[in-house]
Design brief:
This protein is mainly alpha-helical. 61% of the residues lie in helices and 6% in strands. The chain contains 6 helices and 2 strands. Strands 1-2 form a two-stranded antiparallel ribbon. Strand 1 and strand 2 form a beta hairpin. Helix 1 crosses helix 5. The model has no long low-confidence stretch (mean pLDDT 87).
């Protein structure tokens, strides 16, 4: 004999999910402060490197090519790393090539692919800029922060690093 459902029983469907309450006020405030400080820090680092003639994308592209250990990267690789369209990265590469900072060469493993690599001048300028940024930031941290504050910065960077890894 089958039992009839109780009159007050809920139907066999899942209840609608509760609406997301949104980020906590502290998360919103932290987000605003991180974005603001990172933007200001990027501008200060760029000025310290003396790369005022580079756009931010050009400077970042040179940095990525420095990190490629001389192997080079494709335009598509660079565009994906910068989160931009292939055509926009091609424009960036063309500007760097016009300055004699990058060159295009065939991939030795796949001759159909073109790799973008730094020229000797591009490597020199990229390394010089990286060194200047590092020296400026270390000097500012030494001058303006206590040891305890520098340790706090190191800990905060570990937290921020988690945000950029999926």
């Amino acid at each position: 004999m089958s039992e009839a459902p109780e009159p007050d029983a809920a139907p066999d469907s899942d209840p609608a999910p509760a609406p997301s309450p949104g980020p906590e006020p502290s998360a919103v405030r932290a987000s605003q402060q991180v974005r603001s400080v990172i933007g200001k820090l990027r501008r200060r680092l760029r000025a310290a490197a003396g790369t005022g003639d580079f756009t931010l994308t050009q400077a970042s592209t040179v940095g990525r090519l420095l990190d490629s250990a001389g192997v080079g990267l494709t335009t598509s690789d660079l565009a994906a790393a910068e989160g931009m369209r292939h055509q926009s990265m091609a424009t960036t590469i063309a500007a760097l090539a016009a300055e004699g900072l990058v060159e295009r060469r065939r991939d030795p493993e796949d001759g159909r692919r073109l790799l973008i690599a730094l020229t000797a001048e591009g490597r020199r300028r990229g390394e010089e800029g990286r060194r200047a940024r590092s020296e400026w930031l270390a000097a500012e941290l030494q001058r303006k922060c206590t040891e305890e504050e520098r340790q706090t910065v190191i800990a905060a960077m570990a937290v921020l690093e988690r945000l950029v890894h999926d």
